[in-house]
Design brief:
2 copies of one chain form a homodimer. Chain A is of the alpha+beta class. The first copy, chain A, is built from 13 helices and 11 strands. Chain A starts with 13 loop residues before the first helix and ends with a helix. At the A-B interface, strand 5, strand 6, strand 7 and helix 11 of A face strand 5, strand 6, strand 7 and helix 11 of B. The structure holds a DNA duplex.
Chain lengths: 354, 354
DNA sequence: CGTTAGCACTCCGGCCATGAGAGTGCTAAC
DNA sequence: GTTAGCACTCTCATGGCCGGAGTGCTAACG
């Protein structure tokens, strides 16, 4: 039978929008399907429940709502949320009080830079009541600043590599021959002279020369190889580390009380490649990005949504902050929070790198 | 009415032990209360179910078993588990196959030392199907090896502190006056000359002298203060970091499928002070320590058990590895695993520090 | 005296029927 | 286009019922 709207076609008329919005905002807080009567009682739409039902039926036909079963109320679909955040949702800037609180928290923290990412994740988790994610801003490529060799035993040493961007990496190296600290210092001095300010590639190029250098013990070559490898790995990774906080918030949502689904999500998050691919995708997009339910490629993530934004300078160093929550999520607030925090992180990065 | 055994009194007779053991080992795998009939069928005790019931009643009176309700089988109490691991449990060494597998995993890992703790936690989680915990071995007190100042912008620099024990810390410092890299290098060189090989306390002592040194800019004093603070904090903490893996394993146990309890546990684990206090307690005890259910002081931990061991050298550097799981846990296996892994970590530390 | 068979009793868990409640979709009237 | 009315459907909570599992007790047995 012919409906008024044959296909989703054009934009929705205002009343449909209003109703969709009401349903979503109601469902987000109650997690219960919402019915027509309930809606007219609670929201002051000047129409009867029957009319609302008609509209709901249209919205369902258009794919924005669905039905758990015949006599249940309506529930938004992924497409419904999508439409909501694209064209219906209210302003998404954060309330001044919340801004203030967040700024305050950031003011408290010491200058230990790693803390920032923990804090960003924790803050986001706290204000959105979902899980917060944050990665450090990773420079696109690094240069060597300084290396240090510290003997920890007769046959092992700790190799510390300080990068020009302010980052540090540390590994152990085995010493086949016994070296004492003085000898290690000599090697370190030699390598620092030769390798300071070089990129991974340039470090690699020096290896051959070092091999023939009479001053350089064979051990120096092995260390250089390790340094090159560390630097290459650093350059290659899109995401260095992921801090997350408040995964437990999500766990306690009613739709996840039976937890098998969530286990999958947790597992997927452990995997850095996945977040790496997201970062790559985000780098091109400007503002906050939202991935709703099945919009995530990964099947594990079909029941959750991500709200992500990058911070830093596109060509130089990029990091990500974001929210992971149930698809039934307070998107405007989450988006506002992520936008604000990413802005804050931007300022911090700016302060750091000029 | 007078029972045969008025009080728990002496050790249990062999048959009671055998029955307690059977109940525990059965319950550990099934998570269901164990009944008398079931027991005689499955285990070849040469007695009737009635006799078993009598014994069970005694064991219950003695506090080793309990009853969810009248017509249910028996369930071990914390005291039951305790008795079991103290005097009844079978040999607790790990099967050679498992040892081999674990050794193999450790063989695979690169020398990046942080990886070890992740790996230890992951390995323990994997072989016990519970959560694995591991902290890095933290030296009791540290000495400064080297500091490095890297300009990241006109008004901030990254301060890298390398400790003689091979550890590294990094923080940002604000520069009120504009410094360029060359000036920072000068300051770093000056400080390295003055502070190398000093303890936190000694660094503190130099601060006054630096303040009057004409070569040292005021900025150098501020940096030194920061260095001292970092070193003091490092010395003061008992636990630097905690790696955990496989918390999800625990989550999927039947007793935790309704997850509120587990949230509490997770939250308690986040808190380093708690683990710190455990480490302090462990440091005195020699072997593997087991904390069963309510034996943990924290109320949140009353439904889980911990199996923990230290590794490293008591006077010098101590870390912890362990298992967190439901009280209904395969203790002998868990204990064997923890003992083996802590031994392995011991070897690694030994290799590192002499 | 310890062990055992027998038995009554208790309690849980699953099953089914029931009924209230919520919400829909449709139709006909406004 | 909107609304009232109504039949229909489906869920969910309730309560009764029954079978099964397991106990505790008692009395008999060796």
């Amino acid at each position: 039978m012919a409906r008024r709207t044959e296909r989703p076609a054009g934009p929705l008329d205002p009343r449909s929008q209003q109703i969709l919005r009401a349903i979503i905002e109601e469902y987000v807080v109650t997690a219960e399907p919402v019915g027509s009567q309930w809606l007219v009682d609670r929201y002051g739409l000047g129409v009867s429940s029957a009319t609302v039902r008609n509209v709901m039926a249209e919205l369902e036909e258009a794919g924005y709502l669905s039905h758990p079963h015949t006599s249940a109320g309506r529930v938004p679909t992924d497409a419904g949320y999508r439409l909501y955040i694209e064209s219906i949702a209210p302003q998404m800037s954060l309330a001044p009080v919340e801004r203030l609180m967040i700024r305050h928290q950031f003011g408290q923290v010491e200058f230990a830079s790693e803390q920032w990412f923990r804090l960003a994740a924790a803050t986001i988790a706290g204000t959105t009541h979902a899980a917060g994610l944050a990665t450090p801003a990773k420079p696109r490529s690094c240069k060597l600043r300084h290396i240090d060799l510290v003997a920890t035993s007769t046959h092992t040493a700790s190799l510390v590599v300080v990068l020009a961007e302010g980052g540090v990496k540390q590994e152990l190296v085995a010493l086949e021959e016994g070296y004492d600290q003085a000898e290690l210092d000599d090697v370190a001095r030699l390598l620092n002279e030769q390798l300071a300010d070089k990129s991974a590639r340039q470090v690699g190029n020096r290896i051959a020369a070092l091999g023939t250098d009479p001053d350089a013990p064979p051990f120096a070559v092995r260390v250089t190889l390790r340094v090159e490898k560390m630097m290459r790995e650093f350059d290659a990774s899109t995401v260095e580390d992921v801090f997350s906080d408040g995964l437990l918030n999500v766990m306690s949502e009613p739709e996840f009380s039976q937890s098998e689904k969530l286990r999958r999500v947790f597992a997927a998050l452990q995997n850095r490649d996945y977040l790496g691919s997201l970062v790559a995708r985000l780098a091109t997009a400007g503002d906050v990005q939202v991935l709703i339910g099945a919009e995530n490629e990964r099947a594990e993530m079909h029941d959750v949504s991500l709200v992500l934004a990058t911070y830093g300078q596109p060509g130089r160093a990029l990091g990500v902050v974001g929210v992971l929550g149930p698809t039934r999520m307070a998107y405007p607030h989450a988006i506002g929070t992520v936008r604000f925090v990413s802005g804050l992180m931007n300022e911090l990065v700016e302060q750091m790198y000029r």
